[in-house]
């Protein structure tokens, strides 16, 4: 009798353990899935921190480049100031030369006038004038002296004209040389001014790049902070699941729809609308950051009813950093669905929900235009593409 009683007690214990085994496996899968999601969050946080470090290095490089540009700009301004001083001196020298040239021209014209007058008088008097001067000599020494005097006058006039012409030609040549030098200085000045403008433009572009880097850095820092908060929340959630698993005192019941895998290709959409972001890798068009979308984003009207895609149990209902108001349904066999960015939630944790039941309303999109819902489908730790599960 005692042996029979012992056997009966063992059988009851075994039956009890068998009855909770599927629920324990589901809970283990849930914990494993959340731990995997937590690891992904940590990996993305590391990636964000790496990008922040890269941006900080780029910032240092840009700052160094800007410092070099500013130094070069200062040197260029000093060079321009030197060229302007040189130009001023050359212009002053040209002014003096032009004044000398004008004086030489006045002397030249005056002497030319005197010489021309003498020629006219000699022409009027004819050749006999010179002979008369010579024949008027009282003796031979006087004759020689008169001849020498006339020769000296002729040579002096000729030398005077030649000297004035030579001086005028020299001044004109020097003026041409200085004018050419002025043109070179002016050209060099224009080139330096053009270079200075280029430096200013490059400096402005680099400063804009620096501002863009700061904005990008702030974006990554914000994203990293959001992920860290999300990690903290997820960690707390996993700890709660772990407590539930360890207690094993909760009667989970039959909350799934049997073989959930058989519903592939037959699930309804959780909300009416258009898919604006597909499942998988996504590159941000502005910041170039690459993230992995573990679900899909559906654009809809704000307040549009959000329905359960299958029968299940509410695993979580509340705010989740990065997801906003969020609902997680457990459909058994390790399958879960997640509905995020809701404006209102109509179910409580641990509640049983039927397929098609309204569990929430769509929240307002970040752009402020219309509403949105983020939907995910998971099998234990693996994120599945919801698009492959929806009915066509």
Automatic annotation (TrEMBL):
InterPro entries: Cell_wall_metabolism_enzyme, Dup_hybrid_motif, M23ase_b-sheet_dom. Residues 292-386 form the M23ase beta-sheet core domain. GO terms for molecular function: metalloendopeptidase activity. The keyword Signal applies. It comes from the Bacteria. Residues 1-15 form the signal peptide. Keywords: Coiled coil, Signal. Residues 24-89, 164-247 form a coiled coil. The keyword GTP-binding does not apply. PANTHER family: L-ALA--D-GLU ENDOPEPTIDASE, PEPTIDASE-RELATED. This is M23ase beta-sheet core domain-containing protein. It comes from Eiseniibacteriota bacterium.
């Amino acid at each position: 009798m005692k042996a029979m009683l012992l056997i009966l007690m063992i059988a009851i214990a075994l039956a009890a353990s068998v009855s909770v085994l599927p629920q324990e496996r589901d809970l283990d899968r849930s914990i494993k899935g959340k731990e995997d999601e937590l690891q992904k969050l940590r990996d993305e946080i590391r990636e964000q921190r790496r990008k922040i470090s890269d941006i900080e290095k780029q910032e240092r490089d840009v700052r160094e480049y800007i410092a070099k540009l500013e130094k070069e700009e200062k040197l260029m301004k000093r060079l321009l100031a030197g060229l302007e001083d040189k130009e001023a001196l050359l212009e002053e020298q040209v002014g003096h030369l032009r004044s000398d040239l004008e004086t030489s021209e006045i002397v030249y014209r005056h002497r030319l006038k005197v010489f021309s007058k003498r020629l006219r008088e000699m022409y009027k008097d004819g050749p006999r004038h010179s002979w008369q001067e010579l024949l008027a000599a009282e003796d031979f020494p006087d004759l020689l002296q008169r001849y020498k005097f006339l020769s000296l006058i002729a040579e002096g006039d000729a030398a005077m004209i030649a000297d004035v012409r030579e001086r005028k030609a020299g001044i004109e040549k020097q003026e041409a040389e200085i004018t050419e030098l002025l043109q070179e200085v002016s050209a060099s000045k224009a080139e330096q001014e053009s270079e200075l403008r280029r430096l200013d433009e490059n400096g402005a572009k680099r400063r804009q790049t620096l501002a863009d880097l700061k904005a990008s850095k702030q974006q990554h820092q914000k994203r990293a902070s959001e992920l860290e908060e999300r990690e903290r929340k997820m960690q707390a959630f996993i700890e709660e699941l772990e407590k539930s698993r360890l207690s094993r005192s909760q009667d989970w019941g039959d909350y799934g729809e049997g073989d959930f895998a058989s519903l592939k290709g037959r699930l309804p959409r959780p909300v009416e609308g258009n898919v604006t972001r597909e499942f998988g890798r996504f590159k941000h068009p502005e910041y170039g950051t690459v993230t992995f979308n573990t679900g899909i984003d559906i654009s809809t009207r704000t307040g549009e009813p959000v329905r359960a895609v299958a029968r299940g149990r509410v695993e979580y209902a509340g705010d989740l950093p990065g997801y906003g108001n969020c609902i997680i349904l457990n459909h058994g066999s390790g399958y879960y669905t997640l509905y995020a960015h809701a404006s209102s939630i109509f179910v409580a944790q641990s509640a049983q929900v039927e397929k098609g039941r309204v569990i929430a309303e769509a929240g307002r999109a970040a752009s402020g235009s219309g509403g949105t819902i983020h939907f995910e489908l998971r099998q234990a730790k693996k994120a599945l593409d919801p698009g492959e599960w929806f009915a066509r």
